[in-house]
Amino acid sequence: MTDLSGKIAIITGAASGIGLAGVETFVKAGAKVIAGDVQDEKGKALETRFGADTVRYIHCDVTDMGELEALMQSAVDAFGGLDILWNNAGAGGTPTDIEDLDLDGYDFTMNLLLKQVFAGTKFAIPHMKARGKGAIINTSSISAVCAGYAPITYSVAKKGVAHFSKLAAAQLAKYQIRVNAILPGFIATSIFGGALGMTREQSDQMAEMLAQAGGKMQPIGRVGRGGDIAEMAAFLASDAAGFVTGGEFLVDGGMTVGPPHSWNEEVASPILDALGITPEQAEQMRVAMASGSQS
Questions:
Q1: What are the recorded GO MF terms, alphabetically (predicted)?
Q2: Into how many domains does the chain fold?
């Protein structure tokens, strides 16, 4: 089991989804956690659940630089320092394509998904330098490496998060601050409902529906849960990952290994599909050709 005993962590977007799983996982591993979010009711419930000596909820809109900087300071004020920062907060952002690009939506999405990662890291550095080392984890996405998984503005921002993590790792290595990015695949969270304009309650319900129905989308045969990402984050935050920095870690159930026909024999390859040949017909042809070559 990952050991985070004695470490102090900040997780943004901590009141639900991947962030909530992060709080649960980090606490179980022995860390004290500052949980930043804008969902005050859920955030305060977290503090009540674990106790204020273990988890403190701080209201933080990560697009507000003052609130974000204060969030970093809150770890020092509450627990005496800062060892781990997980820049995890996010949402789907503007859904428009290039041709119909919503420029205001573009600015909002970039501020939410990319600028806050830059800024959160900047604000965390002096606190981590004071501790002599630190670990920063940034939530990117498989949409950073493949088209078709998310809107273009979201995807470009997440690509920026992944590359930023590598560049920051280079710049901060001299302070023994490690920086890594996690690229989640299809994780059943409320982000999908939020992108469709649903309420938070409706989005949470949709997340559970996705968890039940989405397994066929990936080779591993099940939808990812927040805990799958949280476990990777906990490892990257721990001393066990002391030689790991500048990495981009896919946690996607195999979604990016290849197109569906590469792992699902019931799906025709694009070539067969173009020729109008079903997988069954292709198998019949293979058997016939094999028989012919043996005669």
A1: oxidoreductase activity
A2: 2
CB 80 within 8 A of CB 131: no
Beta bridge partners of 12: 36
pLDDT in tens, the chain (295 residues): 799 999 999 999 999 999 999 999 999 999 999 999 999 999 999 999 999 999 999 999 999 999 999 999 999 999 999 999 999 999 989 999 999 999 999 999 999 999 999 999 999 999 999 999 999 999 999 999 999 889 999 999 999 999 999 999 999 999 999 999 999 998 876 555 555 555 656 656 665 666 566 667 778 888 888 999 999 999 999 999 999 999 999 999 888 888 777 878 777 777 777 777 777 777 777 777 777 666 5
Residues 149, 71 share a domain: yes
Examine the domain organization and report whether 189 and 278 are in the same domain: no
Catalytic residue from among 57, 106, 154, 175: 154
Tell me the two tokens of residue 255.
């979604």
Exposure b/e, 57-70, CB count within 10 A at least 16 = b = bbebbbbebeebbb
Q: Are residues 212 and 282 in the same domain?
A: no
158: Cα within 13 Å, side-chain hemisphere: 28
The reply to whether 154 belongs to the active site is yes
259 phi and psi, to 5 degrees? -65, 160
295: its two tokens: 């005669």
Q: Note whether 146 and 41 are same-domain residues.
A: yes
CATH at residue 186: 3.40.50.720
The Cα–Cα gap between 163 and 151 comes to: 19
Instruction: Give the Cα separation of 267 and 130 in Å (integer).
Output: 55
Tell whether 211 and 272 lie within a shared domain.
Answer: no
- Closest by CA position to 122, among listed 153, 87, 75, 81: 87
- 96: containing domain: 8-258
3-class state of residue 116 by DSSP: helix
